[in-house]
Amino acid sequence: MVTTRTQNGVVPKPTAKALTADEAYATASDEDDDGDFKVSKKRKVSSSKRQKASGNAAASSSKTKAAAKPRRRGKDLSLLPTMPLDILYEILCQLTPKDLLNLSRTNKLFRSTMFGNQMLTVWRAARDAFDAPEPPDGWTEQKWAGLLFETTCQSCGKRGVVNVDWLLLRRACGTCKRAHLIYGPRIKSRFPGYDPEMLEYVPHTHTSAWTKGWWSNRTNSKFYWDDDIEEVADVYNYGYDEDWIDDRKELIAERAEMVKVYQDWLEQMDQFKGNATAENREKRLEAVKARFREEGYKDRDLDKAISVYSSGIFAGTPHVTNAVWSRIRPKLEPEVQRTRNERIMADLKPSVDKRMAILAGLYDAYLDKLRPSESCYCPPVDFLRVNPDVIKVVEADKDIDITEKDFQPVVEKFGEYVSEYQDDTEKELLKLMPAGSEGVEDPWQLARVVFLRDRRARPELYWYTSNSMEPEDSFLIGRDMVCTHTWERRRKMELRPGVFVDVPSKYELNSDGCRACGSIIIIAGLPQETATIPEMDAKDARFVCKLCVSMNGYNVFTWRAAAQHVWLDGNPNHSMRLATEEEEKMSKENELALREGAKAWSCNHCRAFLEPSASQTKPVVLEHLKSEHGITADDAKLDEDYFVNQRCRHAYEASYLIPEPDAERFKCLCYSCSRYPPGTLHSKETLSLHCVNRYPFKRFEDMVSGIDYEIIPRPSVDEKVVEASSSSGESTES
Fold it and tell me: Residue 457's closest CA among 524, 507, 518?
């Protein structure tokens, strides 16, 4: 029992006799810093160990006396029941009902103390602090507190049960509801010997474990708890009086009336908890900000980076201890750093742009010293933005005046930086090589390898295909085309949290292009897996698409142009063939003039025609050499004075059109062709493909002239007609 003060104010000392086995705890010490209560029972020592210890103690007593220190004892609640009652009351009155319940479950002594009649005022004070309704008749304060303030199933002990059935005054989980609730009409099958009339005196609810949504508002269904049925049956079957009946009816009616009161109080508690939680979050947020301020962060960055909904702040106590801070700091600090870096870079951006313009001028001066055939392999100046030496100069304080002199250490290493970038790029591309290229000495020489620019640098969504990009950006074969390729689009690279810079976009493997090249290699008669670019160039075969026949004739392709043609149209029905000797001879005889007229030539003495958009025809470049550099056309040498710009290889590989003046053209008369432009014409091959795509059951041989199609005579020279290409739904003019 709890001791009270005596008349003289002296508290009697507790005797050892008053302690039982359950009360045998270690003595308390208030020197422990963690504040946790530790309960430890005394351990019995065996007689043999006691004898051994006494023998050793005699020998070492002289040594240990001088070094002996007072033993630190853990804190516990063993002395709490021995405190004066009025002081104990003052302590217990500060606790919540849930804390009182936990304290009563510590041991038997605390249970008998907390459940004693002298503690009723403590329980009532704790309940009144939350403005909770009074317990119903027959309910103790302790039992009522357990129902209101705990979230444990009263049947199985499962935690986290939020809802209370106020008609049954039970907190039960879904599993227990399914096991114990009985639907009214099924009482007879569950309790065959019970009188159904006694259900009038059993509390019932209108919801079961399966009741959800608008069904929860129905009141015509009645569900009974099996224990309540048995409790009433024990009285009903063995005799009862009118007073008992009146009491049961009054109990059920009172519960139905109090449901609204209980629900209103619960809503009030939820609102109170919400307000308290919001207040705790604000206090926790302010405590976290104070910690960040100690680290040197500014309020403008903290206000933008973190809020009460941030991870680590949304839940927790208002007090941020060292342990809590060490746990949540790694979660919050990256976003704070990101916000700070974004602000700093936004203020510094005008200065950075100005300094990068200075660097670009110095880089252009470096490229001017190189021959254009060499400088075209150099990356754009953006690749220097992530260089540590460049960052020190470019991101210096905005009040510092940066000039060309400050970039001089960087200028001296331009050649080194370019070489490193080229080596890194080649290493990354080697990782992208397709399967089967591991054993090849130089995978760059494989004719079936095709690259394209990284599509992630595009601002559009990702539902496009690879051949939706421009061919000059998407069909790159060999080291020369890849390493000289330039692209105006840049990718964003995160230099540090919150700081993104524009750098040259990367490459990726064009799988569809690789398959297209593989099919052309097979048609050329070389092994698909090992055929190299020099081997395909040495064979110098020509190819014809059997389905792409225009009104004026058909095209003859080089192997690069043929592979690109198959890939670009994306038509699996393409049928390439090798050109005949006559077609190949005619194509090669005319290709020289076509290639000289293509805008794919550049001067090797200046950078006037180096950019793809500035490249010119061979006659223009030769005239430029004569007028600007004093080199005549007879003296000009290929690859020394002028060269084929690999950036314009697609224009250089133009196909040659072989005329076919006597070819027949057809106009489809089917109903579906009404959505095509008027006058769309087909060759025999394209009309066959058109019929197969639209009418799989109808072959071209089954079509009748004048009904399914119409033969169109060849138009005059000045007349334009719309022709159908091999791809369904496309058309071209001739």
Answer: 507
DSSP state of 152: B
159 contacts: CB under 8 Å, gap ≥ 6: 151, 152, 153
C-alpha distances (whole Å) from 185 to each of 234, 303, 394, 640 are 21, 62, 84, 103
Give the pLDDT confidence of 530-573 residue by residue, as tens digits: 999 999 999 999 998 877 766 667 889 999 999 998 888 765 54
Distance separating alpha carbons of residues 509 and 432, to the nearest angstrom = 6
The confidence score (pLDDT) of residue 541 equals 93
Q: SS3 for 32?
A: coil
Is residue 3 classed as helix, strand or coil in its secondary structure? coil
Segment 484-510, tens digit of pLDDT: 988 778 888 999 999 999 999 889 999
* Cβ atoms of residues 432 and 511 within 8 Å: no
Q: Taking a C-beta distance cutoff of 8 angstroms, is the pair 595, 651 a contact?
A: no
Do strands 490-496 and 507-509 pair parallel, antiparallel, or not at all (unpaired)? unpaired
Whether 465 and 548 have beta carbons less than 8 Å apart is answered as no
CA pseudo-torsion sign 518, 521, 527, 532:
negative
pTM across the whole model: 0.64
Tens digits of per-residue pLDDT, 216-273? 556 678 899 999 988 888 888 887 788 888 888 899 999 899 999 999 999 988 888 8
Which 3 state secondary structure label does DSSP give 117?
helix
Closest CA to 295 of 261, 340, 253: 340
Query: Rounded distance, CA 255 to CA 147, Å?
Result: 15
Alpha carbon distance 588, 577 (integer Å):
17
Work out the burial of residue 699: count CB atoms within 10 Å of its CB; fewer than 13 is exposed, 13-18 middle, 19 or more buried. exposed
Question: Which residues are CB-neighbours of 284 under 8 A, at least 6 positions away?
Answer: 308, 313, 316, 317, 318, 320
Q: What is the pLDDT of residue 620?
A: 94
Cα torsion for 226, 232, 238, 243, to the nearest 10°? Answer: 180
End-to-end, the C-alpha distance of the chain in Å comes to 111
Nearest Cα neighbor of 29 from 90, 1, 70 is: 70
CA 571-575-550 angle, to 5 degrees, is 80
Contact status, residue 97 vs residue 130, Cβ threshold 8 Å: yes
d(CA 440, CA 529): 10
Q: Which residues contact 70 (CB under 8 A, 6 or more apart)?
A: none
Rounded Cα–Cα distance for residues 85 and 117 (Å): 13
What is the DSSP secondary-structure string of 294-358?
Answer: HTT--HHHHHHH--TTSTTTSSS-S---HHHHHHHHHHHHHHHHHHHHHHHHHHHHHHHHHHHHH
More confident residue, 692 or 91: 91
CA 236 distance to own-chain centroid: 64
Evaluate if residue 458 carries a pLDDT over 60. no
Per-residue pLDDT band at 693 (split at 50, 70, 90): low
What's the CA gap between 33 and 443, in Å, rounded? 68
| Structure token digits, residue 691 | 């019929």
- Residue 582's H or E segment, with its range, is helix 581-596
Strand-pairing partners, residue 731, are 724
Quick one: which of 499, 482, 487, 483 has its CA closest to 382?
487
